[in-house]
Amino acid sequence: MKGLHFHRAALLVPVLTPPIENGAVLTRDNTVLDLGSFKELKKQAPTGSKIIDHGEMVLTPALVNCHCHLGLSWLKGKIPEGLGFFGWLKAIMDYISKEGEDDPSARICDAVIKGLLLSRDAGVSLVGDVSNVFYPSYFKKDISSNYPLIHLFLEKIHPLTEPLELEKPAVLAPSVESFSFSAHSVYTCSRKALRAIKKACNKDDLPFSIHVSESKEELEFVRTASGPISDILRERKRDVKSFFKTASSPVAILKEEGLLDEMTICVHCTFLDEADHKALSKSRAWICLCPESNRYIHGELPRADRIFEMTDRVCLGTDSLASNHNLSIFSQLRSLYNAFPSIDPERLFRAATLGGARALGYERRVGAILQGAEAKLLGISGFTGAKKEVFDFLCSDALEERIETVGP
Ligand SMILES: [Zn+2]
To answer: Within a 10 A sphere around the Cβ of 300, how many other Cβ atoms?
Structure first.
């Protein structure tokens, strides 16, 4: 039969179910029809199906990057590491205003494509991309079908008391599978705007994403309405007193405003207190860790060990190339596992795959090898250990050079 393939490998890691030695995945075109032990599955093989033997490789689902800003990929290597959050923010704002006379549409379009290529080559099948412009306004080029899927978060910044207009775009760019609104942060949106954005997401049962507790400057502003963030807002003629009300933490604001639930993705969560941990785990909100971005900007990592103790609702992101050297989720895994070896690597790998897919609402399509899902798989070479050691391998070895995309 046309398009029927048996992918056999020494070890299959479906993610939702335990690893299978001498495993196989039966695919038709871009869809997984079945999976299991090669011997068993082969007995029921439809005639005409083609066997593709991946030898000693490990087969896994491709990874999910839940938080990126592909449109900032043009800033790769331009912002030095270790500037601190305030210095980093200033550097980005300077760059963007300096490049102002260029055509931003062309620059962003090229940046998105560059970011998608890097993501694909690092084994990513789905990106939660945050942008403050909607793609069709500049996205002229068609994207190749083997690029990662995109859930676009159209990000709003609204430090004003006036109502926020949330107009849905009439058409989605060919590359965008789905979209929802997101808020930049609790310090750049009034509480009224935050509620409006969340309400618009809930109405369509779509994910809501927001940067949360990324920096100490953010905490200072939230607690006192002063400090460097307040200075930037005032420089930009924002009336902090009118739009902002202090709280004990950014998570406390989200809780007070009823914004924490299963569809909310809190990105970063680098500086959480115990009350934040409890509020996040009770609400079942997602925590999206972007460890290498935090390290790049200010050198501190989120307490991932504590986060994994409190909740299973964890996914991973890279943030942009303005604060990361790469767009590799494997690299985020390594950084986290290296810093927190007490975290079960199976749970880490799940966060990098199914966690991200669930957070973005794609769990039936990507993030696990299961019947009906898309055949977006990775073949990874170099694993020689016992079956139970595979997650340790997936979270600690530099795999980007050893992965092959396995597809139709
Ligand atoms: Zn971000």
So the answer is: 13
CATH class of the region 4-62+368-406: mainly beta
What is the CATH T-level fold of the domain 63-360, as seen in this structure?
A: TIM Barrel (3.20.20)
Distance 68 CA to ligand 1 centre (A): 6
How many A from CA of 401 to the centre of ligand 1?
26
User: Range(s) for CATH 2.30.40.10 in the chain?
Assistant: 4-62+368-406
Q: Ligand 1 centre from 396 Cα, in Å?
A: 25
Structural tokens at position 208: 């809501």
Class of residue 82 by CB neighbours under 10 A (exposed 0-12, middle 13-18, buried 19+) = exposed
Cα(268) to centroid(ligand 1), Å: 8
Q: What is the pLDDT of residues 209-242, one digit of tens each?
A: 999 999 999 999 999 999 999 999 999 899 999 9
Residue 244 phi/psi, 5° resolution? -120, 135
CB 271 within 8 A of CB 219: yes
